[in-house]
């Protein structure tokens, strides 16, 4: 009997799991999709009256989930505002995404799309690349009665703050981390690999001007580079230029030492003295160890 009950339960669960109810039809091509494309073309071109014409007189609008009821004049004003505030404005599909039109029958027809807004905010000079996910409901007259905008706000926050003056941390001209950088430089000049390595975390990363943005190499590769310098050059010196800055950034809670140097050495093969100006950025963890180092220098003198 127990086995029979279990079998019946499995059959019921299986039936529920595979039950399907069709609730509408999805279209990848539809007249309302064409309308949204025409609508955003008008917005991009700054044609405020044309943009407004796609909306019903009264519209339910959502901004990241908060709904309110507005008149179509709001969309006319928005177009005029964007047209004045941005140049080179472009609205396009955020590929590989593409729009859908969904006919829910009695629930009406909705369009959803994924767009990318690009351009330059004229006053601040900030370049935007903002993804938007939008939902539109159309009435029987082909006018939009509901529209939902979903988008990240970080870029707009930056634009809003760009006209203000704000502090983002503290700058030090004397700091224990500056001392650490000097000691690391001295260890390099003394060709003391063990002492030099001790200033870095095991998973420290390194980069220089020869590398693409956001690429870096590990400590083991840095050690190989230092050893190659020790073998290749004589009389290595690194002379400080100006004074280093240690900056603690509130945004991200990170501490960086920026320093400027002149690297020099003698090529034993030619007895020629080489000099290279260097800017160095060292990022520190809470334990005072260097987690990342970036070198900005030209190697043309070495070549």
Keywords:
Nuclear Transport Factor 2, Chain: A; 303 residues; eight-stranded mixed beta sheet; elongated; 29% helix; alpha+beta
How does this structure look, described?
The chain has 303 residues and is of the alpha+beta class. The chain has 2 domains: 23-161, Nuclear Transport Factor 2, Chain: A; 169-297, Nuclear Transport Factor 2, Chain: A (Roll). It has 8 helices and 16 strands. The protein has helices spanning 2-17, 31-44, 48-52, 73-85, 154-161, 176-189, 193-197, 219-232, and strands spanning 25-27, 55-63, 66-71, 86-93, 100-103, 109-121, 127-138, 144-150, 169-172, 200-208, 217-218, 234-240, 245-249, 254-267, 272-284, 290-297. The strands form 2 sheets. Strands 1, 2, 3, 4, 5, 6, 7 and 8 form an 8-stranded mixed beta sheet that branches. Strands 9, 10, 11, 12, 13, 14, 15 and 16 form an 8-stranded mixed beta sheet that branches. A hairpin with a 5-residue loop joins strand 5 (100-103) and strand 6 (109-121). The protein is elongated. The termini are far apart.
